[in-house]
Write a structure and sequence with these properties.
Length: about 80
Amino acid sequence: MRLIKMAKLDKSNSKGFTLLEALITLFIVCLLATVGSLQLKEYRTQLVFYAAIEKFRNSFERASRMAVLKNQNVCIDYSEYDR
């Protein structure tokens, strides 16, 4: 008879989530968010790197054109603070 009462109790409480289920779900969501943010950070690093390469290439091409037009040597100066 006691088993029957427990079964009825489980049916009445089955409409919601248990604390354990909610914590597991929260953990999975946080884990996915962390993985996503790490991938975004890596993507941003790649973008910064490729932007620097593109900036150098454009500067080199511009300096090359200026050297030909002016028939002079041209120097490209990059510093840490040049943005």
